[in-house]
Structures are given as C-alpha cells and as structure tokens.
Design goal:
single chain, 316 residues, mainly alpha, 0% strand
Amino acid sequence: MGNFHPTIRRHHDFDADRDAKKIHKACKGMGTDEKVIIELLSTRSSDQRQQMKQNYKATYGKDLEDVLKGELSGNFEKTALAPLDRPCEYDARELRKAMKGAGTDESLLIEVLCTRVNQQIIAIKDAYKRIFNRDLESDVQSETSGSLRKILLSVLKANREEGLEVNASLAQKDAKDLYEAGEGRWGTDELAFNHVLAQRNYMQLRATFEAYKCLTGKDIEDAIKSETSGDLEKAYLTLVRCARDCQEYFATRLYDAMKGAGTDEETLIRILVTRAEIDLQTIKEKFQKMYDKSLAAAIQSDTSGDFKKLLIALLH
C-alpha cells in the first residue's frame, strides 16, 4: 500500500512510573497543568499510554480516565480521553455511540468499518464484546437496513484477501461483473459490488478499477454516483477511495470537517487520534498537496484553546 508514516512513535526514554507521577502532579491541587497532559498524551505510543494508565491505577488507586474527566471539559476532555483507549477500544466505543439511543449515525459506521483492515475489524469486534457484552454484527444488523446493512455486514466478516498480488484476468472479470451489476442493467445488483469491494485486496481493486475504465470509458466512482445514492453510495465510495488512497480519503474527510461554517470536532478528534500511529504524517502531506495549506494551519484557524493545542501536538 505504499509508504505511509505516523506522527506518534514509541517514546525512546519512556518510564511509566515517572509519567504516572507527572500526570498525577498535573491534576493535583488547584488548577490543572494542561501543558503536561498534552505533552504526555501526544508523545507516547498506545502501548506506553496503557502502561502509564496501569501504573497510575496501581500507585494512586484511581482510574486515570476518571481523574481527567473531573479535571477537563468539552472537546479537550474528549480528545484527552480518546488516546487512553487502545485503538480498537476507541473504535468500538465510537461504533456503540453511533448506534445507541434513537437514530443511527450511518456516516460514522461507514467511516470506521469501511476503512479498517482485517486485523483491526477483528480486534474491534472483540473489544466491542468485551466492553459492552454485545455482538457488533448483531447491533449493526438491527440498527441499519437494506443495502447499507448488507455491505457493512460483508465488511464486518473481515474476509478481505491479504497480500498485494494482482490477478489481471480476475480484474477483467470483476470489472465486467461490476458493469453488468450496475450500469449494464436496470437497477443495481449489489451482491457483485459487495463481494468485490469487501473481499479483494487493495492492489487487486486498483487493477479492477483500471479494467473498469478500459471496459466502460467511465471511472468507477462516477458509475457508483449514477447508480446508487445516500448511505450506500457513501459506503461504496469510501471503500473505493480507501483502496485507491486511504490517506487521501482521510485528508478529504478532515477538509470537509472544517470547510464552511462550523466545525465537525468529533470527526477531527476521531481521525487524528486513530491515525496518529498509522499514517497521520502522510495524511498531512496529502492535505498540503490537495488544498495548498497545511493541516496544522487549518486546525489552528478552526479550533481554540487547549483542544487546539492537543490536536496540533498530535500532528507533530
């Protein structure tokens, strides 16, 4: 999938005891030392943050999350709590939040489920079971419907082929199947789309999209836009864009979260926190290239206070 780089790596001089003491001191007495909290959360890897949490609990007999909840508020609190979960736990909580109560946040389900790789999906399902004692697939089954439900359940099977090998004749065949399932007939036969988009490896999909272009003279994204609508269109486009260039997909999501009036802070938090240890450096580079301004500058002008400081720290 090419080279991509994180913004957060393991801290070379890590000492969980020292960090637990530092964060304890930052939360003690009158006022909170936000600077220390920001520094610790944005310069330690996920494993290191877990160790810091365990040491904090062992030393002070309290959960670090509860202490921070008492000290912080608003978007800064949300962003500070997010990295204290393991990535799969954070994703599991986001998915639960998207389905709990009245109404379902389909966009969030699509963004998380259609962009994660097999191991991540398996880990998310396990975390969901562990934290909520519920089955993620059953919840998606009951909280979504129709075509969207089908594609999300396909993705949740975590059956995507691993590896990078490309089978050119399969790409031709899949392209033909997609054409016949979509533009080549009245109504769209989603089974073919679900099968191909949820199961082929990303390099194979790229070859399929090329073959589709040669066969029909049309880009697969344009075909999807003319054949589907609403959440199904969103899910298919997310899968296609992730196969083509996942970092570009997230750069676009970040841009959309900040354009126009108002800011979608939840999306900013979710993408920065979940991608920091995977490919956030590369997402930053894509953002700069696509929008001719830095992601940091965009965030600077759209957010404020300690919330802004922590987001900017996650970027470096």
